[in-house]
Amino acid sequence: MTQEIEILMDVAVLGKQAENFMASELGRFLLGRADAEVLTGVAQLKNLAHTDANAIRLAQAQVWRGESLRDWLEEAVRAGLKAQDVLEDRDSD
C-alpha cells in the first residue's frame, strides 16, 4: 500500500470517528455546550459598552471557543468524506 493511500485511509477513518463522536451522547452534550457558549457570547456582545475592550475580547473568545469545537469536528468529517471519495475514485479506475 502506498503512503498516499495509507494517509487517505487514516483521514477517512478519522472522519468517521468524528462523525460517530458527534452522534454520541458525549458528542451531543459537548456540541450543545459549544452552542450555548456561542449564544451566551453573542448575547454579551449585544449588551456590552463599545468602550469595554476587555469585556468585548472575552465575549469574542467565548464565541470563538464555541464555534471552534464544532468547526474542528465538521472539518474532520468533511476531510474524511473527501478522502473516501478519492479512494473510491481510485478503485473505480
Structure description:
The protein is an all-alpha fold. Helix content is 90%, strand content 0%. The radius of gyration is 19 Å and the shape is elongated. It starts with a helix and ends with a helix.
What is the CA–CA distance across the termini? Answer: 16 Å
Strand content: under 5%
| C-alpha Rg (nearest Å) | 19 Å
The DSSP helix count reads 3
Question: Keywords for this structure?
Answer:
93 residues, mainly alpha, 3 helices, 90% helix, elongated
Topology readout:
Layout lengths: L2 H21 L1 H23 L5 H40 L1
Question: Can you summarize this structure?
Answer:
With 93 residues, the protein is an all-alpha fold. The protein contains three helices and no strands.
